[in-house]
Design brief:
Blueprint: E1 13-24, H1 27-36, H2 82-95, H3 97-100, E2 109-119, E3 124-135, H4 140-158, E4 166-176, E5 183-184
Antiparallel strand pairs: 1-3, 1-4, 2-3, 4-5
Pfam families: MoaC
Keywords: Molybdenum cofactor biosynthesis
InterPro entries: MoaC_sf, Mopterin_CF_biosynth-C_dom
Length: about 190
C-alpha cells in the first residue's frame, strides 16, 4: 500500500512555485492570436539565448503553412476566447492536481497567476503559471500542471486552424519556501 509523504511534522509556511510551457504555432495562427490579444505580445523572444541559454538548442519549429491548407476551419477560433479559456483551464488544473498526479497532496491554494505572452518572431506562446500556498508541502507540481493544462487548452482551442502546434519546454522556473529553500532555474527567461 502506498503512503503519501508525511507532512504531519512539517511547519506550515508560505510557498510558491512558477513553471512555464512554450507553445510553437504556425505563423498564420500567431498572427490571428496577435489580432485577438495585441496586449499579450512580448517585448523579447522566448528563444533568446542571452536570456535563456538552456533554450538555445531548442529546435525552432518551422510550422508555417498557407492558411488555405486549413479549409476545415469554420472561422477564426470559433471555440471562443483562447487565452481566457486557457487561463481558466490552467487554474482548474492547479486546483485538481492531486486528482491527476498520484501522491500529490490536496492543497489549500492561496493564489494562482497565469500569464500568456505571444513571441511573434519565434511564432510561439509562453505560458507562465505561478502558484502560492500556505502549507506543509510545495506547489511545484501544481505550477507544472497549470502551465501544461493551459498549453493543452491552447492546442484544443486552435486545432481547427492547424494541427501543426508543438508544446515544448514545460519546466519549473522557480520555487520559494520549504525545507529545501529557494530554487531558480539557470538563466530563467
Amino acid at each position: 500500500m502506498a503512503i503519501l509523504a508525511q507532512t504531519s511534522g512539517k511547519k506550515s509556511t508560505a510557498r510558491s512555485a512558477s513553471a512555464h510551457s512554450i507553445v510553437f504555432l504556425p505563423a498564420h495562427l500567431t498572427r490571428t492570436l496577435v489580432e485577438m490579444e495585441p496586449d499579450a505580445v512580448l517585448s523579447h523572444s522566448v528563444l533568446d539565448p542571452k536570456r535563456n541559454p538552456l533554450l538555445a538548442n531548442t529546435p525552432h519549429h518551422n510550422l508555417d503553412q498557407p492558411a488555405a491548407d486549413n479549409d476545415h476551419a469554420t472561422g477564426p477560433l470559433s471555440k471562443g476566447p483562447v487565452f481566457a479559456t486557457a487561463v481558466i483551464a490552467g487554474t482548474m488544473a492547479v486546483k485538481r492536481t492531486s486528482d491527476l498526479i498520484p501522491m500529490c497532496h490536496p492543497l489549500p491554494i492561496t493564489g494562482v497567476e497565469l500569464d500568456i505572452g505571444i513571441d511573434v518572431p519565434a511564432s510561439a506562446l509562453r505560458i507562465v503559471c505561478t502558484v502560492r500556498v500556505d502549507g506543509k508541502t510545495g506547489v511545484e507540481m501544481e505550477a507544472l500542471t497549470g502551465a501544461s493544462a493551459a498549453a493543452l487548452t491552447v492546442y484544443d482551442m486552435t486545432k481547427a486552424l492547424s494541427h501543426d502546434i508543438v508544446i515544448a519546454d514545460t519546466r519549473l522556473l522557480a520555487k520559494d519556501g520549504g525545507k529545501s529553500g529557494a530554487y531558480r532555474a539557470p538563466a530563467c527567461i
